[in-house]
Design brief:
One of its GO terms (cellular component) is plasma membrane. Keywords: ATP-binding, Membrane, Nucleotide-binding, Transmembrane, Transmembrane helix, Transport. It is a multi-pass membrane protein. It holds the Pfam family ABC_tran. GO terms for molecular function: ABC-type transporter activity; ATP binding; ATP hydrolysis activity. With 523 residues, this protein is α/β, with parallel strands linked by helices. The protein has 17 helices and nine strands. A five-stranded parallel β-sheet has the order 6-7-8-3-9, with helices on both faces. A four-stranded antiparallel β-sheet has the order 2-1-4-5, with helices on one face. A hairpin with a 2-residue loop joins strand 1 and strand 2.
Length: 523
């Protein structure tokens, strides 16, 4: 993931400095061999030269190490920023909120940072260390080096038996974490309710089972990882150190290798045995993030999808729906609904609670919860859910973002300030804008606004989106009669096309609409 999501130039220098930094142990082995041979041969005249080499080499390695650390940290920062942004875009393609997504962006991404990004970088540097150390060791004595290398291969083979259990444990932990985050978020959302009834202890008790499941799965994953590392370490000590050193000692006794070369190869063995063990450990860490990586790829792919069969906003003339049946949770709400709405028309939707009025708006936007015999857009047959960009939506339960008033009105779109101000004035938000300003933050201050103000902010957002059809779901539910009257006067005087679900109304008010869809006729 590092190479594909990080600057290739920076990745090149990351490798360069990492390669230089990985020569530390090789240089130490080289100096160890020279110092031992100097002592055994009593050639102390070369000591000043060796000291100079040590100072120069360690300085270069130190600077390379510092630069490598900076680039490694920068890589994690840049990749996290890039992937979090792309994943969020993919999440926002969903029609409804998934409570598990928050946990994925926090807990799972933290695990990804430690067990994926850093693991990939460390494996790269360990590989350089192995190659350099092995090359120098072979130069000193190929036979002893071969014995060390064969011994180090044994833990590699053994580690393959532990991969599948670790991957399964990681998958189980991810699922348990999603459930825990979802349940905890739901409980925290009801803090005021638990406080009202004094049932905080029961809420904690209810959540405890999810905590226990989460910690049980995490403990299982960790113990598998730790046990695997323990087995590999013990096997490595026996096969990759003790046995090869015994063979080397015999060769020194027989005069087939110098003592300095044996110590150097032993020192180097740590630089190709230990890194191999570290690579295996990091591979285990990579296994724990396999599910997370696949999920990231799915979100990114979703975020890169483009809406197909979209309708240009200026092309709308008429939408017609024939024989629509609405269903929710397997229950039929209403059937054989027929209606048409032309550009500029105002349509009212009335009927008993629970009959499917709001569900019909969801069907129009996304094609969910229903099936129609035919839908015609500008006299052409279209598939449900393929023309979402035809609609803007406003409901009695306003969606407000923890951001400025301006962002809540425009969603970041480039809309002239004069246009935004004009719409706010018509929706009686002008006083709010004058007092608070468009920079007013609704994150911590949304509770200081009335439900009616929040509902009108969402209505203004829908109008400013300039979609061909406004879908209004009981927008007057939290408005006083005078404000509702003023807003509807504005809506009816405009050239807006809208379909409005209304519950409380006077029969005379229905005369203002071009069409009335009465669900009493379809249930």
């Amino acid at each position: 993931m590092i190479y594909h999501n990080y600057s290739h130039l920076k990745f090149f220098w990351l490798n360069v400095f990492g390669l230089i930094y990985s020569t530390l142990n090789i240089f130490a082995a080289y100096m160890l061999s020279n110092l031992i041979n100097m002592a055994t041969k009593r050639q102390f005249s070369v000591l000043p030269s060796l000291v100079t080499q040590i100072i120069v080499a360690l300085t270069i390695i130190l600077i390379s190490g510092l630069l490598f650390n900076y680039l490694k940290t920068d890589a994690v920062k840049q990749i996290n920023t890039k992937l979090r942004t792309k994943v969020l875009k993919g999440m926002l393609q969903n029609k409804e909120e998934d409570s598990a997504n928050l946990g994925f962006l926090t807990n799972d991404f933290k695990l990804l940072e430690t067990n994926r990004y850093e693991a990939e970088i460390e494996m790269l540097i360990y590989a350089y260390t192995v190659i350099l150390a092995l090359g120098y060791a072979l130069y000193l004595n190929w036979f002893v080096t071969l014995i060390y290398f064969v011994g180090s291969a044994i833990p590699t083979i053994v580690s393959n038996f532990f991969q599948k259990p670790i991957q399964k444990a990681s998958s189980d932990w991810t699922k348990a974490n999603d459930k825990y985050v979802s349940q905890t978020k739901n409980i925290l959302a009801g803090t005021s309710t638990f406080n009202l009834y004094g049932e905080q202890d029961n809420a904690v008790k209810q959540n405890k089972s999810a905590v226990e499941r989460l910690e049980e799965k995490l403990a299982k994953m960790n113990v598998l990882n730790n046990n695997t590392n323990t087995y590999l370490n013990i096997i490595a000590i026996a096969s990759a150190f003790l046995l090869p050193f015994a063979f080397g000692t015999l060769l020194v006794v027989n005069g087939q290798i110098t003592l300095g070369a044996l110590f150097a190869i032993t020192q180097l063995s740590n630089s190709f045995v230990n890194p191999i063990l570290q690579i295996l450990n990091e591979r285990n860490n990579l296994s724990t993030t396999k599910g997370i990586v696949n999920k990231i790829k799915q979100f990114i792919a979703k975020g890169e999808q483009k809406l197909q069969n979209g309708v240009a906003t200026g092309d709308f003339k008429q939408l017609e729906v024939k024989n629509l049946t609405l269903k929710r949770q397997g229950k039929e709400l209403a059937s054989q609904i027929n209606f048409a709405v032309a550009k500029g028309q105002k349509v009212a939707v009335i009927g008993p609670s629970g009959s499917g009025k709001s569900t019909m708006l969801q069907y129009l936007m996304y094609g969910d919860y229903g099936q129609a015999q035919e839908e015609l857009l500008n006299q052409k047959a279209v598939q449900p859910g393929t023309f979402t960009n035809l609609f803007a939506y406003s409901s009695q339960s306003a969606v407000i973002f923890a951001d400025s008033l301006w962002f809540n009105l425009t969603l970041g779109a480039d809309i002239p300030r004069e246009k935004v101000t004009d719409v706010c004035e018509h929706l009686e938000l002008g006083q709010l804008v004058k007092e608070k300003g468009f920079d007013y933050q609704l994150g911590d201050n949304a509770d200081q606004l009335s439900g009616g103000q929040l509902a009108r902010i969402e209505l203004a957002r829908a109008i400013l989106a300039k979609r061909p059809i406004l879908l209004l779901d009981e927008v007057n539910a939290s408005l006083d009669k005078a404000t509702s009257q003023a807003i509807h006067d504005y809506l009816f005087a405009s050239d807006f096309t809208f379909i409005e679900v209304i519950h409380h109304y006077e029969p005379a008010e229905l005369k203002r609409y071009d069409t009335v869809i009465d669900f009493n006729d379809y249930i």
